[in-house]
Amino acid sequence: MNMWHICAFELRRILKIRTVLLNLFILPLLLIFILGTALSGTMGSGEDAVIKPVRVGIIQSTEATKASVVEDALQTFLTSPAVSDMLKVRDLATEEDAVSALRQGELDFAVILPSGLQDQLVAGKGAELQWILGKDNTLNVVGQTVFTRFTDELNRQVAIAKVLGPEVVAAMASVPNTDLTEEPTYITTSSPGKAGNSYSASQYYAASMLAMFMLYSGMTTINSLFSEKDKRTLIRLQAAPVGNGIIFAGKIAGNSLLAFMQAIIIIVMTYWLYGVNWGNHPWLIILICVLITIASMTIGIIVALVSKNATSASGMMQAIIIAMTFISGGFTPIAVDLVNRISEFTVNHWALQSFLRMMLDSPVSEIMHNIVMLGVVCAVLLLIAGVIYRKVGYRYE
């Protein structure tokens, strides 16, 4: 009897348990369907979101209107093709008019040009605009982004003139094929990854649930290790001419194959049933699944070896998986900086980001960065599991 005999026996034993088949194969597909369908309107359908033009009201004081430099720069900015397609501009006399128009839904966003703007530029201070937010947060973000780009460009031009002097700037502008003679591109619209691609709710939850339920394979490892002790069959195995390491490795190998089978079934079934696009890098998907399997087994080993019984080990393992899935945004994306920092120490974060980068058809360098970080987490877990195994071992007590 060698490791592979133990591995095959372990795999056959697990596949006979109906609850295991239900929890590892059917339940994740059901959750992906429910979450993907219920949250499709919130997260998107996998197509680029089309934002309607923002209706912007601009309030200029008398002093700001007289400032020809600011007025000319603003008009040039607003009439550029990219900006004119995104904004519908309306001039207003007072701030009260803008607030009234925003409340009545006639405007989405309002910008105030302060009276001392020209003096600030002459004094070398940064130009800043004031804005009044509307009811739609998305359109507010668009308006703030666009006009922040305007002030950044204005400040850059003023800084160039201040450092080089107006004579040098004029001389550069007279020379053809220079940046100053070309029409500036104020706004560039892009999508993460390949142009035209974004992930849908079904894709997002397919990736997150795959990572989570592959980690749940570590619980089958825990139950398998403790069942041999509880049923006193570990003594019989140790009486055979097989080392403890071979027995332990065979049981881990059987559960690892189960986790990998689970990954294949979830990926194939979500592609066929839900139309989930997993990207164009099948070998990288296999590599990620191998790394998640390693993480699942090592976490299960660590928890099993430090726990007194199967009940406490299963509870601890489940708490770890739920916590890692939650802080990594597996249930819902979390936009808290501290939580995002903590999530970088979890398996789920790097696994989820790796899958999402492939779904967005991002450059291979971005995908590999996440895979390498996932590998680093697995290496740390392997090291910890190896140290604990050498101290505790797998034997009947």
Give a quick account of the main beta sheet: strands, pairing sense, barrel closure: 4 strands, mixed
Rg over CA atoms: 30 Å
Low-pLDDT stretches:
176-187, 189-196
How many structural domains does the protein architecture include? 2
Whole-number mean pLDDT: 80
Distance between the termini: 24 Å
Assign an overall shape: elongated
The count of β-strands is: 4
Count of discrete alpha- or pi-helical segments spanning 4 or more residues: 19
Q: Which strand order spans the largest sheet, edge to edge or round the barrel?
A: 2-1-3-4
Written as H for each helix and E for each strand, in order along the chain, the element string is HHHEHHHEHEHEHHHHHHHHHHH
Structural class: mainly alpha
Residue share in helices?
55-70%
Strand content: 5-15%
Protein name: ABC-2 type transport system permease protein
Domain ABC transmembrane type-2: 157-392
Pfam families: ABC2_membrane_3
Transmembrane segments: 20-39, 204-226, 257-276, 282-307, 319-336, 367-389
Question: Notable features of this structure?
Answer:
397 residues; D-Maltodextrin-Binding Protein, domain 2; 2 domains; 4-stranded mixed sheet
Summarize this, please?
This protein has 397 residues and is mostly helical.
